[in-house]
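Continuing the series of single-chain predictions for the mutant panel. This is the parent chain; the variants come on the following pages.
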Amino acid sequence: KFNTPKYRLVVRLSNRYVYCQIVWATIKGDMVLSCANSKELPDKYGLPGYFGLKNWTACYATGLLLARRVLKKLKLDEIYEGQLENDGEDFLIEEKEDQPKPFSVCLDVGLQTTSTGARIFGALKGALDGGLYIPHSVRRWPAAEKDQVESELLAKYIYGGHVGEYMEAMQEDDEELYKTHFAKYIEKEVDAEAMEDTWKEVYEKIRKDP
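Parent structure:
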């Protein structure tokens, strides 16, 4: 129909943060319905410090935050709660009878490389689990093959397990480099074992008050 908005989930990465927006195009230019960025995670949602704000897990959290925020703005948050258990399984919100349709968007990656495991797909997965309807394929998620995805591996990425494994490996190989490279993590007492609980608390706070 004429002048019906076609909403896009715009994901952009800088050297420090990830930015997500819900945008639609007009003759005058793009208009923003809602936005979120990873800098909010330590400021408002309990991440202990300003570290890891552009990795795959931070992208997931920012996508989840934007999804919950825009659904709350549209008063759809209680109808479409999304995937409450972040278990790494593929998820797409389904329409409910006698209720408004799910909020539908398409992913806008811009000029970014869409290789397997790319961080932009972390934001996509977060937005899907948050309750947005986004046509997608799982083949670009970490270690996915065609239309199959390893849910356990994806869950590890969602909770920062891949970072925890890297921390453990570096600690074994070079203690001094580990202390330098992960100084901000160590300062806030976030090690490989605490990684999952840290991100679980962040996700709970996002859902409680986006």
